[in-house]
Amino acid sequence: MYAILVIDEEDEGGIIVASNEIVEQQQAYVLIGRFLTEKNINFNAMQNVMASLWRPKEGMEVNDIGGMRYSFTFFHKMDIQKVIDGGPWSFEQATLLTHQLEMGEDPCTVKMQDVEMWVQIYDIPRGFLSENILKNAGDSMGKFIRVEPNTFDGVWKQYVRIRVVINVEKPLKRRMKIKREEDNCIGLILNMSVWELSVLSVVFLVIWNVIATLYIGTLIK
Question: Which residues cross the membrane (predicted)?
Answer without folding.
Answer: 194-216
